[in-house]
Amino acid sequence: MKGLILSGGAGTRLRPITHTSAKQLVPIANKPILFYGIEAMVDAGIRQIGIVVGHTEPEIRAAVGDGSRWGVDVTYLPQDAPLGLAHAVLIARDFLGDDPFVMYLGDNMLEQDLTQFVDDFTEMDGRCPSARILLKKVENPKMFGVAELGDGGAVRQLVEKPDEPASDLALVGIYLFNRAIHDAVRSIRPSERGELEITDAIQWLIDSGDLVEHRELQGWWIDTGKKDPLLECNQLVLDTIHTDLAGVLDADTTIEGPVLVEAGARIENSLLRGPLVIGRGTVVTDSELGPYVSIGTDCRINGSRIDHSVLLEGVRIDRVTGLTESLIGREAIIEGPSATPLRLMVGDHSSVALESADHG
């Protein structure tokens, strides 16, 4: 079995961060989102992975490399424009061959591993399925693609954002296909938005008499394409960490809860409230950090209070004592003094100068 990870989207919902970097490389708990998908495939026994890439291909290649660090072979599949999930399958035809494969949206995060989803994709009631989709019960099915199930759990119909949903089972961005999907993606036509939709391809399989089955997702699922879901996902992953103080903490620093400080980081006269991750080379002085904060490598935090936020590498924050629910891009600078509660989304290499009311 092979893996296909889609990483070609423009990430417009995460701008300004994605003006200068790939959305799939934004970190969750100091690890790029894309790496979680690769690791999930590795844990499921997949060793050949194709990554569909767009204009951020050089950055993704630099981060992922040839896949050897995970013991896999990575093939990069350029997509000139984001023309739909089914179009990604179309351009990956030579890589995929006739092998079954998992398709994974590169900005989705799951609590559940892929092993159970991938296992026994062979036969159901004497028939081999052409596809298996992952579904999740949601409170607002009108906002999602929804599956209608028939007898025995086979998928009868898929409807995108229905006015009257037939179920509360939404499609999660992970799919399992055999070679029949290649006929389907060649047979469908672009949707009204000009894309080849994977839901149309799956419906083509159903209408052609192929078996499409499902599995119901256990645990959480988050599309990290917007700031608030990304911060929520960061919180959920941080809830799984354990204390590891590989960096240097002075005697005036206090730890509360699980805190991970990477080697090369230095903490002075600060309060660290876990869950919290601090990357290598970062220096924190006279600050209160956490809970639910991920701070990247080589950051400088002085005289500040930060919670429920993600800071990418190289960030500088000075005398900002109310930063919360924020996403701060690479090498951004935020300078106070400011004690006003702030919720910010700041792009890479930006500079923000703040001033408290009592300073003018």
Fill in the keyword field for this structure.
UDP N-Acetylglucosamine Acyltransferase, domain 1, seven-stranded mixed β-sheet, 360 residues, 2 domains, Spore Coat Polysaccharide Biosynthesis Protein SpsA, Chain A, alpha/beta, seven-stranded parallel β-sheet, 8 helices
In short:
This protein has two domains: 229 residues, Spore Coat Polysaccharide Biosynthesis Protein SpsA, Chain A (Alpha-Beta Complex), CATH 3.90.550; 119 residues, Hexapeptide repeat proteins (UDP N-Acetylglucosamine Acyltransferase, domain 1, 3 Solenoid). The protein contains eight helices and 32 strands. Helix 3 packs across helix 6 and helix 6 crosses helix 7.
Give the topology.
Blueprint: E1 2-7, E2 27-28, E3 31-32, H1 33-43, E4 48-53, H2 57-64, E5 73-78, H3 85-91, H4 93-96, E6 101-105, E7 108-110, H5 115-118, E8 131-137, E9 145-149, E10 155-160, E11 169-177, H6 180-187, H7 198-207, E12 212-216, E13 221-223, H8 227-238, E14 244-245, E15 248-249, E16 254-256, E17 259-261, E18 266-268, E19 271-273, E20 276-278, E21 283-285, E22 288-289, E23 293-295, E24 300-302, E25 305-307, E26 309-311, E27 316-320, E28 323-324, E29 327-328, E30 333-338, E31 345-346, E32 351-353
Parallel strand pairs: 1-4, 1-6, 4-5, 8-12, 14-17, 15-18, 16-19, 17-20, 18-21, 19-22, 20-23, 21-24, 22-25, 23-26, 24-27, 25-28, 26-29, 27-30, 29-31, 30-32
Antiparallel strand pairs: 2-3, 6-11, 7-13, 8-11, 9-10
Helix pairs in contact: 3-6, 6-7
Structure, explained:
- The chain is elongated.
- Helix 3 (85-91) packs across helix 6 (180-187).
- The model has no long low-confidence stretch (mean pLDDT 89).
- The chain has 360 residues and is α/β, with parallel strands linked by helices.
- It has eight helices and 32 strands.
- The protein has two domains: 2-230, Spore Coat Polysaccharide Biosynthesis Protein SpsA, Chain A, CATH 3.90.550.10; 241-359, Hexapeptide repeat proteins (UDP N-Acetylglucosamine Acyltransferase, domain 1), CATH 2.160.10.
